[in-house]
Give the backbone structure.
Amino acid sequence: MQIKTILNRVQKFKSFVYGTVRLVEKTSIPTLEIELHPRANSHPVCSSCGRQRTGYDRLPMRHVEFIPMWGHKVFFVYAPRRVACPDCGIRVERMPWVKGKRHLTESYSWFLADWAKRLSWKDAASFLSLVWQGKKSGISLCLQ
Ligand SMILES: [Zn+2]
């Protein structure tokens, strides 16, 4: 079974497909990068009003961290499209796996929040081999 098959079972997106899965060597923690692509003939959705709009351009590739698998960090890699919305102006498209400019996927955020309900943030970070960093703007966790 391929990783893409597993991802399509646990985290399928209607308008996006999984592309190349790459094992990144020479990192302190083994890392998987999973490319995402818009489904053929899909139109980007304006992140402000939620309507399908005409594409404007694409932004550089962006990495968003997904739930670690088998001791590997996992990142979704995607170059977001921008839309020319007649109501909202030029906006970045809505991506169902992440909100705004966050660095963690929604799934990973919920995964961490679920563990944090059972344990303290510090204990959850320790159990999941994460580094806990309290910040003014929120809490940041990353693999050690
Ligand atoms: Zn809009």
